Amino acid sequence: MTVIESSTELNLPVETVYVFLADLNNHQQLMPENIYNWSSTEDEASFTIQNMAKLAIRISERKENQELTAIPTEKPPFDVELKWTVADNGKGGTIAKHIISADLNMMMKMLASGPLQKLADHQTQKLTEVLK
Question: Most exposed residue of 33, 63, 87, 112, measured as fewest CB within 10 angstroms of its CB?
């Protein structure tokens, strides 16, 4: 299993960050420009990644003010899990971490690891910008 992580620190309480992330409608604001055909509800989202694939995800697990896990609703090219964790940073703020776990063979790992890391980094950066 390939695990890709990116984290950011926000000067907002854990509850505020969790509520934002818990609604998949908000995740469109975190996506890079190569994501289009976005459609979402609070629990599900579908979108197309330019030159790659169409992906549909749904929240599979919620631990209030701790973590959210999303999994594909249709068979993706490889098994993948998208997780956000939020934790208090000890100063009234939040450390938000985006974790992408993907079951990639060697060839797919070479092709997909870079883009997946860029995606995770982009989303944590956008989260910081959107929730200023």
Answer: 33
Instruction: Tell me the one-letter amino acid at 49.
Output: I
Question: Strand pairing of 80-88 and 2-10?
Answer: unpaired
pLDDT in tens, the chain (132 residues): 999 999 999 999 999 999 999 999 999 999 999 899 999 999 999 998 877 778 899 999 999 999 999 999 988 778 899 999 999 999 999 999 999 999 999 998 998 899 899 999 999 999 999 998
- CATH value at residue 105: 3.30.530.20
Give the N- to C-terminal CA distance of the chain in Å, as an integer: 34
Model's pTM, two decimal places? Answer: 0.92
Count: domains in the chain? 1
CB 94 within 8 A of CB 54: no
Question: Residue 15 and residue 36: Cα distance in Å, rounded?
Answer: 29
Cα separation of 103 and 1, whole Å? 5
